[in-house]
């Protein structure tokens, strides 16, 4: 991925087919962020549903603007010191022509830029699941701006930008095991170590309020992930994209079955939450490795990730860190597993000739490269994210008050609730009650229905 626009006479010609495919892939990746919002939104208690949805949706707004202004330039511009990119033509996209092609490929620069934009959007949104119930929405928005600027944009350059240290070292990351999942998971761990636990952690039950929403979100993620993974080969007609597509499905299925098997043996039941979480763990693990392994290797990657992530989600109770929705256990651990298993299962017949321990000359060379990439991204994201959270907490404050957390962050931060328990339907009566509530400063009129529903809400929120 060369950082300069190719204008030479012998440059590849525009491919309408590849361009169309990449636009569809970009839309699929964008769909993953609302899918993530539903996935997370169903996993929290009723009183935090809207806040969880909004933490993903705000990323779609903030990161889009930053990506156009300077993010694309920092990530994929001309390399500076193997740490950061910068190309003035990419700032505000003022120097990009509509027919300029991304160097070495048959798609326009605009298409490549918007595809990568979708990755930049979903990566910080992944972090939000670890912070459920307790972070000010305004503080989260500021953290988003700082985090993508200081962490995501440079790391994307390291891993995917020509001249980036991980890229030049030969670290394989097809679609974001290090740049997306380890990056977000390590950031989540860094932030929660600073802001602390939810009120009632390990004491009060904090069950998902809507497993159907969780399953819907997981299904949208699974669907969109085909664009996320297969699209990352940028439409090249050499069979690697289709291999990645196939391996995505295989590894996800294997991980889901492995997670459910672990649950059945350990807890005696196969849960819907386990099925959804297992599928996501498989998607995470195959993201860096799917272009390098065979379909049989994809089964191994998925199965190992499914069991390992299922075991890892319980570590928060052992070590006392409050990872609300298991971002560390699924995304960080899954990303580490998927990235390191390349060092064992890379066949040399996919995206590159690099082979793992089980193939070729049984060399550990690629494994050491993967370890370097994993360690570098994990350490940088963890430390910098913790510092950012600490600074914000000491200045504007990261957490809502304890009373606001207990009563519900949706009401405190958004003046709304996800579900109407008043008993009033739509039509004239509903409009009248809404008007009365507005006249009363947003307070719902109290009646017997409210009191009863309040008891129900308390029971669910507990």
UniProtKB/TrEMBL annotation:
Residues 448-462 have a biased composition (Basic and acidic residues). Residues 21-419 form the Ammonium transporter AmtB-like domain. SUPFAM superfamilies: Ammonium transporter. Residues 435-462 are annotated as: Disordered. GO terms for molecular function: ammonium channel activity. Gene3D superfamilies: Ammonium transporter AmtB like domains. The keyword Transmembrane helix applies. InterPro entries: Ammonium/urea_transptr, Ammonium_transpt, Ammonium_transpt_CS, NH4_transpt_AmtB-like_dom. The chain crosses the membrane at residues 20-40, 52-72, 105-127, 139-160, 180-199, 211-228, 240-262, 269-286, 292-315, 327-347, 367-392. It is found in: Cell membrane. Keywords: Ammonia transport, Cell membrane, Membrane, Transmembrane, Transmembrane helix, Transport. GO terms for cellular component: plasma membrane. Pfam families: Ammonium_transp (PF00909). The keyword Plastid does not apply. It is a multi-pass membrane protein. Involved in the uptake of ammonium/ammonia (NH(4)(+)/NH(3)). PANTHER family: AMMONIUM TRANSPORTER MEP2 (PTHR43029:SF10). Homotrimer. Belongs to the ammonia transporter channel (TC 1.A.11.2) family. This is Ammonium transporter. It comes from Streptomyces griseofuscus.
